Amino acid sequence: MPDPVSPVDALPPASRAYGEIGARSDAPRWGMVVDQERCVGCWSCAVICKSENDIPLGMWWNRILSEGEALDTPARVAGREELHWLPLACQHCDNAPCVKVCPVGATYRRADGVVMMDNERCIGCRYCMIACPYGVRVFNWGAPDRPTDFDTGMVVARPVGTVEKCLLCVHRITDGQIPSCVWSCPEGARVFGDLDDPTSRIATLIRDREGTRLLEDRGTEPKVYYLSPRRRRPL
Amino acid sequence: MSAGATHSAAPPAVRARRSRPPAALVAWFGLLLLIFIVGLVAWGYQMRYGLSVTALDNVVMWGQYILFFMFFVGLSAGGLIVASAGRLFGVARFRPIVRLAVLEATVAIMLAALFLLPDIGRSERVWHLFRYPNLTSPMIWDIAIVTIYFSLSAVYTWLYTRADLARAGSPIALGTSPSERSAARDDRIKGRLAWVALPAAVLLHSITAWIFGLQISRGFWYSALMAPLFVSSALVSGLALVILLALVLRRLRRLEFDDGLVAYLGGLLGVFIAVEAFFVLCETLTAAYPGAAFESEPMRRLLTGPYLWFFAFEIVVGLLIPFLMLARRRLRESVGVVALACSFAIVGIYVHRLNIVLNGLSYPLMDLPPGVAGGDYAPISSSFVTSYFYVPSLVEWLIVGGVLAFGGLVFTIATLVLPLREGDAPH
Fold this sequence. Notes:
The complex is a heterodimer. Helices cover 17% and strands 17% of the residues of chain A. By secondary structure, chain A is α+β, with helices and mostly antiparallel strands. The longest helix of chain A has 9 residues, at 44-52. Chain B is 70% helix and 1% strand. Chain B has 16 helices and 2 strands. In chain B, strands 1-2 form a two-stranded antiparallel sheet. Chain B starts with a helix and ends in a 10-residue tail after the last helix. Chains A and B meet through strand 2, helix 3, helix 4 and strand 8 of A and helix 7, helix 8 and strand 1 of B.
């Protein structure tokens, strides 16, 4: 199946300069690590995601959840107040519920593991949003609201009445670049790489730091791993 | 044998009524047509501005349209159950209402399918469902069974009325003859179809339940009881609607049956309500008892939170009161009591579906602040949502009204064209 999302043009040099994927195997299985010890909840990745992918106002593919009662508030852990964040976007599940339920196959898993969206085929039934246990899909309810009157993204904007979500910057991967949320993180809290390559940095981190995945008991086999903080961050 | 002979046999009063439609009928058609046109305009408005004109958002992404889809799938149960149960188990008492029942099933399932059209964000791409079907999707299974069920109901309706239509020379008889031999053949076909129709009816409600019940995303829905629960609620609402329609048509002198049948059907409805109540109890207790995280939030919302009153309504008005009304022989021998109980049961099943869908959706998964991006840009205030109590917008009501009015038009025309009584000539 051809990728419906292709770069509008070749990426501009400024963006190209960041994050070469480098040497890669013939059959990679792309995944991501999010280090909660490093994350300071700055939302840089969420904001660059909006600009990279031309996401209208009121919609987010990537957002930063706080583990406390409200935004950027601490949670009480073992009698101490601790401040941690949970960056959340599509988990690119190997056993993706959204892929199973899509009636027209508009969302599908690519050979390299990226869960894709074909917005020209999507009929807008929102069954994928019902099925996703992570609540990371967003719908184009009406005409897009944008802060600028020109397109900001490196990809084609999605039509009204269809569902969209994080595509792991598939247009950049195709071009040999890592996703924008990864290179733009000021704390280096995100690592992108090939989960099937045991020598890759991502595989090593998951092994050494005992990376966990969200809602593992549901059997969705997500490819985003979270590293829990070793140092607690008391207030 | 000819149409002319039937006409001359009709009493003068009937002929006079036939030549000019009564004012009430004209007013009824006018009203339905008006609501239908308003609904069409509202749908055009929604097509122009997108689903943002609904009250849906990224938390509650399915609302009134899907509720009515499920509701009408359930309502369509009445017909084939009356028809095929009557045939398979020899319940001959259903005979006077069997034609009405299969007609009701046909119209209800057609409306259910129509409710999907305004729900999807790009209605003009609905053909993708047939061009690119993904066979692992319960929605594709549902579309298949809805199509099968609609065809079966339509064939049934035709088979039951065909001989009388042929006798009157109606083109709807498709040139078949009203002979004894063809009537015997009809009976054989109906008998064989019943073996397909009853499983199809059970599957229809089960698959509609599996759209929800197979989803690991929401513990509230992920239950093996979902399919039996949908079958039982379909039996309740489907039979209740058939009883109500039969009473209305009897008053309009289009059907004839005695009050004994009403009491009999009322008693049957009472049994269905008891089964439904039992399933609701099993489901609620199983979900609430462990207090497990997977289910605790939706159960809290249902039992103590924003949906408490809806749940109380479902239990008291939808199950308890109609059951008590129908359980006593003396009460259900009153036609008025049965009619009231049917109305309560139908509304109760609607609220039951609301409690499953809307309550199950009313909070974000990964329930951490700031929540889910609702989908609307709201300057100054946050566009993130942590809890959402969905109330349908005016546009949603108008579109629902339009589909309902369309169904009313089709049903009314069908009752005028088709002989609902055995031996009747069509009007």
